[in-house]
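Changelog note: in this version the structure field was regenerated for every chain. One regenerated record is shown below for reference.
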Amino acid sequence: MTILDISLQGEGTCKVQHNETPSEVFTSKPKEYGGRGNEFSSTDLLAAALGTCIGSSLEKVLIRNRIDLDKVKLQVFKDLSSKPKTISLLKVVIHLAVEIDEKTEKILLKTAGTCLVSRSLAVKPIVDLSYDWPSN
């Protein structure tokens, strides 16, 4: 199981550290919610997780079809609903700067739909929230 350690940095900012690598990421609440808005928001990271999952899933297919990875970019568009405030849309656009045949297109689209994040968003995962603090 992966463990992410999250520490509060003040002004709506958090630091996320990965337990298996020295990697760290900062998040910030948007300004309209009292944050600084100078880092990715938590919902931005969810959108980024989807985009990077799809991108890394496509990589083997692209290489096998001799498509230069520099010719591929992905964009994720995130839209929020207002009531209740939730992510209402995550649109992923895969940009290829080269022509591909219909067979490769079908394989890429099928592969994109199988990424773990996409499959996880299709079902409501269990969120097990617990507390660890001294009691009186």
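Spot check on this record: Residues 31 and 83 are 19 Å apart (CA to CA). The chain has two domains: 1-40, 41-125.
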